[in-house]
UniProtKB/TrEMBL annotation:
One of its GO terms (cellular component) is outer membrane. Residues 1-18 form the signal peptide. This is Glycine zipper 2TM domain-containing protein. Transmembrane segments: none annotated. Residues 56-97 form the Glycine zipper 2TM domain. InterPro entries: Gly_zipper_2TM_dom (IPR008816). Keywords: Signal. The lineage of its organism: Bacteria, Pseudomonadati, Pseudomonadota, Betaproteobacteria, Burkholderiales.
Length: 162
């Protein structure tokens, strides 16, 4: 039983390992030509990317809660405790899975040289994006990431007084 629970928890943890980081390239995207388009940053806003919920957290939490709850008291108390523990564990497991699958990201709104506008959501990677910055949109296999334009040197901008 403990081995089954471990496998379920490990599966949930591995399912949470996906990312929208522009610094992580999938193996099938390596050594492929990508389309590059010049653009200018119009605005940036902080967003949260909610990952896919697999249900593994709910199942694992329900199993653990059911087992823990069933060990309370006698036979009748154990049945009630098991049911209540399973429900509470499932809710807690689902909440944990949702919080593990969340990723801080940015939505970068850009304007292309032809005047068209695009928005790209990607994980925060330490880059700072300021309206007016020159960027390139790199698109490969339907996925687009924003990178600073070659030769970009951040301009020191005064910080407004607080």
């Amino acid at each position: 039983m403990k081995k089954s629970i471990s496998v379920i928890l490990l599966s949930a943890a591995l399912a949470a390992c996906s990312t929208t980081s522009p610094d992580v390239i999938q193996a099938h995207d390596a050594q492929r030509m990508a389309r590059v388009v010049d653009a200018t940053v119009l605005s940036v806003r902080q967003v949260v990317v909610q990952g896919r919920e697999t249900g593994a957290g709910t199942i694992a939490g329900g199993v653990v809660g059911g087992v823990a709850g069933s060990s309370i008291g006698g036979h009748r108390d154990g049945i009630v405790g098991g049911v209540l523990g399973a429900v509470a564990g499932a809710v807690l497991g689902n909440t944990i899975e949702r919080s593990v699958n969340r990723e801080d990201a940015v939505e970068i709104l850009v304007q292309l040289r032809n005047g068209e506008r695009r928005a790209v959501v990607q994980a925060r990677n330490g880059d700072s994006w300021i309206p007016g910055d020159p960027v390139v949109l790199v698109t490969s296999n339907g996925r687009t990431r924003v990178s600073h334009a070659p030769g970009y040197a951040p301009v020191a901008r005064p910080v407004p007084p607080s």
